[in-house]
Amino acid sequence: MTVDAELQAFLVEMNGPPLSEIPLELLREGGAVPTDTPAEMANVVDRTIPGPGGDIPIRLYYPRLAEDLPILVYFHGGGFVLGNIESHDSLCRKIALGADCIVMSVDYRLAPEHPFPAAPEDSLAATRWVLEHAKEIGGDPDRVILGGDSAGGNLASGVAIRLRDDGITKIRGQLLVYPWIRLRPRIEGSMVTNGTDYFLKATDLGWFEDLYLADADAEHPDASPLVIDDLTNLPRSLVITAGFDPLRDQGRTYAERLSEAGNICDHSHYAGAIHGFFGMPADISRRAVDEACAWLKATYSDAD
């Protein structure tokens, strides 16, 4: 198996020096990956909601004007250091249209200015807020799904576990796209085979970890959901992994553990894909988004 031809062309542009060698302000100014042209929405609303460290910016995407639409709470990727509402704007628009749902994109606090546990605290607060205020924004509080890519997958999975532990069972699903759910893992498997030549480097992950964790323990369950022993009674899940991703094995292991714990978990693997492919302007990326949207619609329907 080789890298998908369209993604291979992007790799030529995206591969570069280790992120630690580039000033952080420059990394944040430029987009990490190419994106599709943003789709038109019936409405897009920028606002803030209360958070543990101050107001949290969110963006609400409406595919149509209606009441009681299902909601996807989406946490962007970027290693807990990069990314924001704008970096994932095109993707959130596509999901809102394809799944016919409100997408609430959460601009959680980033490291190193706000190290762990700022991001999971904001993510949990944003989810609690939408469960309480879904009607206010035109959504259905009984049809809420959590989603995220890479670091965002970490946050989505962590929030699902925290809510389960608090006895909140209203979350209907979790969409985890190449989730980074084990920080400071052993360097083996896909971390070795895919850790140098396919956009996201193992050294980049180490740089993100140092900035995000600071003095925190990587074994903390809010930092690494994969270390948690009890994964029972979690929402239905779709885990998407990429064949040339250093995080491939983490996602596969988490999907296996969710299933072994008795949860409904679908695992979809895109063998020719790289980390960050979800939402890129490529056929394989569009197929993955289409699959995610179909899964979201089916999961929302099951909740009726």
Terminal residue distance: 41 Å
The CATH H-level homologous superfamily? Alpha/Beta hydrolase fold, catalytic domain
Number of domains: 1
Named at the architecture level, the CATH assignment is 3-Layer(aba) Sandwich
> Nearest-angstrom radius of gyration?
18 Å
Question: Strands across the major sheet, in which order?
Answer: 1-2-4-3-5-6-7-8
Topology:
Layout: H1 5-14, H2 24-29, E1 43-49, E2 56-62, E3 69-75, H3 89-99, E4 102-106, H4 118-133, E5 139-149, H5 151-165, E6 171-177, H6 190-193, H7 202-213, E7 236-244, H8 248-260, E8 265-274, H9 283-302
Parallel strand pairs: 3-4, 3-5, 5-6, 6-7, 7-8
Antiparallel strand pairs: 1-2, 2-4
Quick gist of this model?
The chain is α/β, with parallel strands linked by helices. The chain has helices at residues 5-14, 24-29, 89-99, 118-133, 151-165, 190-193, 202-213, 248-260, 283-302, and strands spanning 43-49, 56-62, 69-75, 102-106, 139-149, 171-177, 236-244, 265-274.
